[in-house]
Amino acid sequence: MQAIGEAVNEQMSLLTGDGEQGIGWVPIEEIAWGTYGSVVGLNPDGETVADSGYIIYSHPLPGGLGGAGVDRVAVYLAPLPSFSVANADVLYVYPATVVTVLEPPIGMPDGESAPWRRMPIEDQITAAAEAVGIEVQVIPSDPNPLYQLNDDDPTALSRVADYLLDGGHRGSLGRARAIPHPHRVRDARRQP
């Protein structure tokens, strides 16, 4: 049943709510926040709808809605890229959903530029450290690489975290700001 639902969802996600042609397609799990696009999914009332707007946030819901069922991703769409998640429209989609990237309407702010994908967290950490003038050494480790900040300043990690988490910028190299996993921050603090 899940395979049928995903196949139908993939076909529907190629359509936009108003019949416009997309300028690109990106999997929901990779979409850069701030991209203007169209998504087909379930609204909070359980109805299948197509909605367009700036994708300002998304996060997985393991176990589906209410913790039971097929995994879903909550996608937040807004009329402006600076809109609050609390006031955005939410759709629930399958993890395999593809976003149809659209040009924003005339007079609206530009959306995220191509390739419309979030920068991997590893690259965000490195770019953030470089942006604040700190050299980073990437240490191969299983399952995730570790990062050593080559700086004698005890506030080095705080400066990198401030850069990544501060809402006053659009994040490293123009991408939406990162939300690093707490275990990665904890692991980085343990490094000598």
Describe the structure.
The protein is α+β, with helices and mostly antiparallel strands and 192 residues long. The chain folds into 2 domains: 2-101, no CATH class; 121-190, no CATH class. A 6-stranded antiparallel sheet has the order 1-6-2-3-4-5. Helix content is 22%, strand content 27%. A hairpin with a 5-residue loop joins strand 2 and strand 3.
Précis, in short:
It is built from 4 helices and 8 strands, in the order αββββββαββαα. By secondary structure, it is of the alpha+beta class.
Spans with pLDDT under 50 lasting ≥5 residues? 1-5, 7-19, 167-178
Kindly report the spatial arrangement of strands forming the biggest sheet: 1-6-2-3-4-5
Main beta-sheet annotation: 6 strands, antiparallel
Kindly state the number of beta strands: 8
SSE ordering: HEEEEEEHEEHH
Structure annotation, total helices: 4
**Overall pLDDT confidence:** 75
| Cα-atom radius of gyration | 18 Å
How many separate domains make up the residues?
2
Rounded to the nearest angstrom, the distance between the terminal CA atoms is 50 Å
Range of strand content = 25-35%
Helicity level: 10-25%
> What structural category do the secondary elements indicate?
alpha+beta
List its salient traits:
two-stranded antiparallel sheet; disordered N terminus; single chain; 192 residues; 22% helix; alpha+beta
Compile the SSE list and pairings.
Blueprint: H1 2-13, E1 24-27, E2 35-42, E3 48-61, E4 72-78, E5 89-93, E6 98-101, H2 121-131, E7 135-139, E8 146-150, H3 156-165, H4 182-190
Helix pairs in contact: 2-3
